[in-house]
Design goal:
about 240 residues; mainly beta; 1 helix; about 50% strand
Length: about 240
Amino acid sequence: RTSSTYDLNEAVPGTYTVIVYAKSATGSALPMQATNSVNYVAEAGKPMVSNLVVTSPAIAETVGANVTISATASDSGGTPEYQFWVHGPNNKWEMVQNYSPVSTFSLSNLQSGSYVIAAYALDLQQVKNGDWAEAYYNNTFINVNSSVSLSEPPSGTMGAPINITASAVGLTNPVYQFWIENPQGQWESSGGYGNPAYAYVPEASGSYTIIVYAKDPYAPATAQYAISAAATFTVP
């Protein structure tokens, strides 16, 4: 989009991270990134938690690893309770710990794939009242034994499509995004994350660089939670 403004209106209190990307209209360089945060204060007289943070030891893990997930939340004058859900290589959401004051849980013997660990937090009184819709939510991600590879012809012809494909392992239902740098140093994206194939039409002779990013579909569209691979091809 070309607009430099965006309206943010959240009902749940807490600190929200805002990331903005900007790039030139001609795509002459990779997008620039800036990060800031916005804090929403709880409605007066309404006991709600805020500032929920979910952390894991690392984003990348090896098969068989054991990890402990932690959640912390603020609850002025009250007691926060936590509920944990996991979406893993079995491609199903499972509740692994119901609402309780315990703010950690462990995953053992991790298998190849990506894991989404989601935490919900409520004030103790909200739990007693069954106010589930007022829960504050956050998540973290773990990629286990994850990698991605590219397949492309070593050379191409100006004006004819170059068919590029990627294949990821160790990700649950992976989605892909491709970036191409032309001989003039301009970058072009395949668009949002999606299919593992991209047809690119080169318009000049020279050397081209391909970068593919692959991630879990639930993960944010940032390099932090993605895996990548690069390759080159030439156009005579």
